[in-house]
Amino acid sequence: MSVSVLSLTRPLGSVSGLLQVASLLGLALLLLKAAQLYLHRQWLLKAVQHFPSPPSHWLFGDIQEFQDGQELQKLQKRAAKYPCASPRWLWGSKVTLIVYDPDYMKVILGRSDPKSHGSYRFLAPWIGYGLLLLNGQMWFQHRRMLTPAFHYGILKPYVGLMDDSVRVMLDKWENLIRQNSYVEIFEHVSLMTLDTIMKCAFSYQGSHQADRISQSYIQAIQDLSNLIFSRVRNVFHQDDIIYRLTPEGRWNHRACQIAHQHTDRVIKLRKAQLQEEGDLEKVRSKRHLDFLDILLFARTEDGSSLSDKDLRAEVDTFMFEGHDTTASGISWILYALATHPKHQQRCREEVQSLLGDGTSITWDHLDQMPYTTMCIKEALRLYPPIPGIGRELNKPITFPDGRSLPKGFQVSLSIYALHHNPNVWPNPEEFDPSRFAPGSARHSHAFLPFSGGARNCIGKQFAMCEMKVAVALTLLRFELAPDPSRVPVPWPRIVLRSKNGIHLHLRKLP
């Protein structure tokens, strides 16, 4: 009997011992992790000790700035109170230096620091590693490969395609105001810019503005923009495995699938078309090479073509950036003109002097709208389509005032705060197009709607052309006024949106 009892208690004792060892190991790992977090926080505190900022919680950081809907207003207060830059804590062990000074911007954008891995990596399941997310030599190779797609000679015939897409949108608005003179414009403008990029960069025939697939794609992009922005600020959603198990993670996955179905369809159609057309020289003799042609015919340094993965990454990147940022810009420009009728009328008169007889807009007309261009730039200052960009320092940096940051630190270049910085722009909330009058002086890095330096927006000339076409044709057809009951609330996502839409009163002009 005693032997059997001993034989039973030995396994129990060994299990108990294993549990004790496991508990001690778990505790040791927990203490080690706590020590690492503590030392990392001390390193961060030392790095930002010369940059004053508002008081923050040791654990929750500046989370209240994101929760009360006043994030942009808080950024403006930082820019007015704390010179050049100030640290903002996402939580106790994560901080980024918010930069809003042109001299600081110039130093950072003049370097080759990579995009911030901690936040930009969340875009990868959606747009892959194309021009937006690539760094180093790979980025340089892709940039050099794609630059010909945005040459002036390529852009000139695009103006006619932009004209067609804008007129389709304006016709829709004419029909809508027969029932209600107020229109929420952002979604319509998004469909129009998607239609434009499909025609210009991907030579797509037909209109996307009444296409259900396009509407699903637009909604997916909006969902992804919101989900990714929220994920960056949620400490519990940083790990990919954990995030995939959450409702938001599953939603993100479904939205990525919808976006990829759209771009895969575009690539498949073009590959089939090129099989019929033949080799590069035969295609070049028939028509100009668009963005997708250049990708499909491109060769890397070792002579191989782009992989399917790299190809889709570039298409996903440009499908998104080519329509969503421009849609934001156009929507906010029209809102700015709606709220400033005198400037709107002056722009209209300028456009009427060029196109009053109903002539289609051409490339040559775009340089003959100086006042309209000034108003567009001033609206882009007030409402920059990309509110901010991030960098991770790959070597120490010293700023012009002598303050410095170590290698590995995260910096966020707040274009919105820069454009609203009273130390850079007097009376920054006032809509004043004369700031951009020919010959007016300003810092080279005070106005950055398309970023700056080597990694500036490759499609900025394309975007400016489309904005001018959209504004000119809209002002010829409609008088714009704001909806006083629904004032837009700027909302910083990947692009600058309005939390409650952009509602305008449209009156058809005779």
UniProtKB/TrEMBL annotation:
Can the keyword Heme be found in this entry's annotation?
Answer: yes
Extract the signal peptide range.
Answer: none
Where would you find the membrane-spanning parts of this chain?
12-32, 120-140
Q: Which InterPro entries match?
A: Cyt_P450, Cyt_P450_CS, Cyt_P450_E_grp-I, Cyt_P450_sf, Cytochrome_P450_Monoox
**Carries keyword Repressor?**
no
- Supply the Pfam families for this chain: p450
Q: What is its main location?
A: endoplasmic reticulum
Task: Tell me the keywords, alphabetical order.
Answer: Endoplasmic reticulum, Heme, Iron, Membrane, Metal-binding, Monooxygenase, Oxidoreductase, Transmembrane, Transmembrane helix
Q: Look up the coiled coil feature and give its residue ranges.
A: none
What PROSITE patterns does the annotation carry?
Answer: CYTOCHROME_P450
Similarity comment = Belongs to the cytochrome P450 family.
Instruction: Please state what the protein is called.
Output: Cytochrome P450 family 4 subfamily A member 11
